[in-house]
Design the sequence.
């Protein structure tokens, strides 16, 4: 189940913030000091279905900024087809439990990828640990 128009909301918010003026000294992308810039990076990653952004997106699930969390889970769902039960509006303890599921999923996915590279077949996929 998609989180809804989070991409549109984040993009709209980013456009408003940009029109109000922003400092490029904060950097851009996932490494930016600006939550808005990180949210924009998440939207772009989701739109591009950029699997190389998954680790950054999982880290963003822990953000104090709600827009970052919404953008991150929306992008993760676009890329993997999963939410693993993560709700960006849930209490911190519930979000923390879901982040653990994402970290476990990522480990399994990485182990599967290395197993495939060595000919083992691997167990990692977007379906592994499905909880959505």
Sequence:
């Amino acid at each position: 189940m998609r989180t809804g128009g989070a991409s549109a909301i984040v993009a709209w918010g980013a456009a408003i913030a940009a029109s109000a003026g922003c400092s490029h000294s904060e950097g851009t992308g996932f490494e930016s000091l600006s939550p808005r810039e990180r949210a924009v990076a998440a939207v772009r990653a989701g739109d591009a279905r950029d699997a190389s952004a998954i680790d950054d997106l999982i880290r963003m699930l822990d953000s104090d900024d709600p827009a970052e969390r919404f953008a991150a889970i929306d992008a993760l769902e676009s890329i993997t087809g999963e939410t693993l039960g993560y709700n960006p509006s849930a209490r911190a303890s519930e979000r923390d439990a879901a982040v653990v599921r994402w970290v476990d999923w990522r480990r399994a996915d990485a182990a599967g990828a290395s197993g495939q590279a060595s000919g083992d077949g691997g167990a990692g996929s977007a379906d592994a640990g499905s909880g959505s």
Q: What stands out?
A: The two ends are 7 Å apart (CA to CA). The first helix runs from residue 6 to 19. Residues 6-12, 14-25, 120-132 have pLDDT under 50 and may be disordered. The helical segments are 6-19, 35-48, 54-60, 66-80, 92-117.
